[in-house]
Amino acid sequence: MTLLPHPVTGAPFASPVPPGTGWPGDPATAQTPVARTAAGVRRLAATPDPAELAARITVCRACPRLVDWREEVATTKRAAFADQPYWGRPVPGLGPLDARVLVVGLAPAAHGANRTGRNFTGDRSGDWLYAALHRAGYASQPQSWAAGDGLELTGVRIVAPVRCAPPANKPTGEERATCAPWFEASLRISEPHVEAILCLGSIGWDATVTALRGAGWHVPRPKPRFGHGARAAVATPSGRPVELVGCYHVSQQNTFTGRLTQDMLDDVLASLPG
């Protein structure tokens, strides 16, 4: 396989990027255990070590359809990125572990996070999200184009219920269920610090509610309804209150049509713990 230079570091990588070869922010090594089944995900997600959890997420191979798709995309590529290596693996969370705000998306974009290895990076959705996070004081810069570009987040952490790019941006119910223990583990790590969970889109909202219940959180019944600016009171297993906040997803379908405007996004972010 031809080795290509990383767009930031210039170091050569195969595509997809193998673990432990020096990609900026890669937490995995060649010795990181690999989940190959749903049972394997449940077992390996039980680690209490955040760094080890991130490493295990990035080498997961439990969903054959998603593995085949993410690696096919990483090999064939989009013409605009033909000279770049693709991450082509599951994407870990981004941001400080003690963040007071948790932002929940859905899944990596095929030529965004699946290419760059970082949530909402290298695509139009990320352009919107990071510009808004920068305006709100959560991000050190308004752009996010590649791992290693200097972006730093303060007070906010970004995760996704599904860690691999799915075909047509639509993971199956089985794939979401298989990936759920990774998400629940991320919630456990954030639990001591988080004060608000911002869900981008109804799918992210529903996945978060399901994962919160799976992780032992207290969630109202009937299930809180999603809406832009919707708010619901949930609580950690110990009873500490946390606010669940809804926001239309920063997808082009919403931003190009005006369903979600910059002012709407800024207003939601301004309402979160500062």
UniProtKB/TrEMBL annotation:
Database matches in SMART domains: UDG, UreE_C
Pfam families (alphabetical): UDG
Keyword DNA repair: yes
Gene Ontology molecular function: 4 iron, 4 sulfur cluster binding; DNA-deoxyinosine glycosylase activity; metal ion binding; uracil DNA N-glycosylase activity
Record domain Uracil-DNA glycosylase-like: where: 92-269
This protein's UniProt keywords: 4Fe-4S, DNA damage, DNA repair, Hydrolase, Iron, Iron-sulfur, Metal-binding
Gene Ontology biological-process annotations: base-excision repair
Disordered, as annotated region: 1-31
UniProt keyword Transferase present: no
Family that this chain belongs to: Belongs to the uracil-DNA glycosylase (UDG) superfamily. Type 5 (UDGb) family.
Record-given protein name: Type-5 uracil-DNA glycosylase
Organism: Janibacter melonis
